[in-house]
Amino acid sequence: MPTSPSRRLALITGASLALVAGCGSSSDSGSGGSDAQSPAASSKVAVVASTNVYGDITEQIGGDKVAVTSIISDPSQDPHSYEASTQNQLALSKAKVVIENGGGYDDFVDKMLKSSNNSSAEVINAVTVSGKTAPKGGELNEHVWYDFPTVAKIADRIAAALGKADPAGAAAFTKNAETFKAKLTPLETKEADIKKKHGGAGIAITEPVPLYMTEASGLVNKTPEEFSHAIEQGSDVSPKALQTMLALFTGKQVKALVYNAQTSGSQTQKAQDTAKTAGIPVVPVTETLPKGKDYLGWMTANVDALASALDK
Ligand SMILES: [Zn+2]
User: Fold this and answer.
1) Ligand 1 mean position to 219 CA, how many Å?
2) Cys-Cys with 217: which of 37, 101, 191, 224 at CB 3.0–4.6 Å?
3) How does strand 202-205 pair with strand 257-260?
């Protein structure tokens, strides 16, 4: 586990080719992801997604008619501190469809797209599609892929963009998007079930990653704002905010700690240890798709883990 990594999005064009050589490849996740350089792939719609979350959703919708490059797909890599590579720059220069998260999460996509002189790609910005904005006096939670109604909208947008790039495939893309969206419905049902059983229960988080899911499940985030904000920014939590956080566990104010397993540091570790000692279940979540899972399987596991932690 890296200790307090720099959490700022870093753009170092041309650097770190070796670092991302294993994750810039499109071919490691099976369906649809084939080598964009091979002749057979030339008829496929070239897509670049900022993370493998959107990459996987695109593959579900595009099937074998798309060649997807996910810029970030290594579960041990923190998307907040991504360093750009020339390999991804090249993929972006050829992309017909680009899916970025937006909301400050992956500004490197826009920067790289600009410097690759690709002005014709259709760019889908997930935060824009979500319609979500910062709450009054607060900050936008940019982790919109934990919000299933938003993901349904994104699926439609992806199908439309792919259909524009490959009109012959448009009907299939629309049908695949419908199939995908139908599988989101049980996830919303699971959230509603949690709400029925545990609505109003307090939870703590280390970062806002899972908040759309916990809110839809009727749970109340009791984390001191200063704690989760500092963790997300990669800065130190004040001793006072840390004490307030730890008191949530020792005082049994919360029923679970939903923990971002992708960004650990000594203070989040302390929170996790304190929760465990106090008998508060810890639910790990991640920013990007874990190896061997697709989006729906991953989110099903997340919601199920939350439900079973609360049932304890
Ligand atoms: Zn995050």
Assistant:
1) 19
2) 191
3) parallel
